[in-house]
Amino acid sequence: CASCQIGPSILNSDLSCLAQECEKLVAAGADYLHLDVMDGHFVPNLTFGAPVVKCLRSRLPNVYFDMHMMVSEPEKWVDDMCDAGANSYVFHIEAAKNPVELIKLIRAKGMEVGIGVSPDTPIDKVLPFLEQVDLILIMTVYPGFGGQSFIHKMMPKIEQLRKSNKALNIEVDGGINKDTIEIAAASGANLIVAGTAVVKADDPKVVIELLRSCVNK
Ligand code: DX5
Ligand code: ZN
Q1: Crossing angle for the helix pair 204-215 and 18-27, nearest 10 degrees?
Q2: Atom of ligand 1 at shortest distance to CA of 194?
Q3: Which residues does the annotation say bind substrate (predicted)?
Q4: Neighbours of ion ligand 2 (CB under 5 A)
Q5: In angstroms, what is the span from residue 59 Cα to ligand 1's centroid?
Q6: Exposed, middle or buried by CB within 10 Å (0-12, 13-18, 19+), for 180?
Q7: Once rounded to an integer, what is the mean pLDDT over residues 105-111?
Q8: Which 8-state DSSP code applies to residue 64?
Q9: Potential cystine with 189: which of 32, 58, 89, 172 (Cβ 3.0-4.6 Å)?
Q10: What is the pLDDT of residues 180-201, one digit of tens each?
Q11: Is 192 in contact with 211 (CB distance < 8 Å)?
Q12: Annotation says 36 is catalytic
């Protein structure tokens, strides 16, 4: 799809110099940055929170920050993430006690709203909310770590979503590389997260261009 956007995930980048890594990815042609927040509870790993996002925002004033909130209490971080400069707030359906209220809360802060769906969660869980959100994020790995293999059997979820809503933004996250991006885009995803494939490359620009060429045919 010509309108596919590529958002690198910085999870597997050199986190000791995160700002430079982000700047490098933007210079390499990233359409947006996908920032993975993990709380050690919803997922068995820890990353960073709003204070780090705020520092990144001061270094990168104009880049779109897509916040992937892999946290058990998503309602708890909405204000902080907004104040830190987040553009979107993607919570997981498995973690939301009251999705409708949470969607309202995120919107009231002026952020775009997304709902994430882990591999074992049926897509039916998010169907009631499609009209109220800006994007649905389909996980093609188990959340928690970069560098895992793409789970092909998640494609029917993307296909079903695309069939039910032509205009919906569908984000795919996990195991995207030159071999898997085409199937994800052909299934209907238009926001493509790519972590390891991009950040571990000798030249991220070459990989972003390659990924783009795979979907822009
Ligand atoms: C996993 C994260 C993903 C991941 C993507 O929990 O949500 O964003 O970092 O990285 P790769 O592309 O390496 O699977
Ligand atoms: Zn992610």
Answers
A1: 50
A2: 12
A3: 9, 68, 144-147, 175, 195-196
A4: 36, 68, 173
A5: 23
A6: buried
A7: 98
A8: -
A9: 172
A10: 999 999 999 999 999 999 999 9
A11: yes
A12: yes
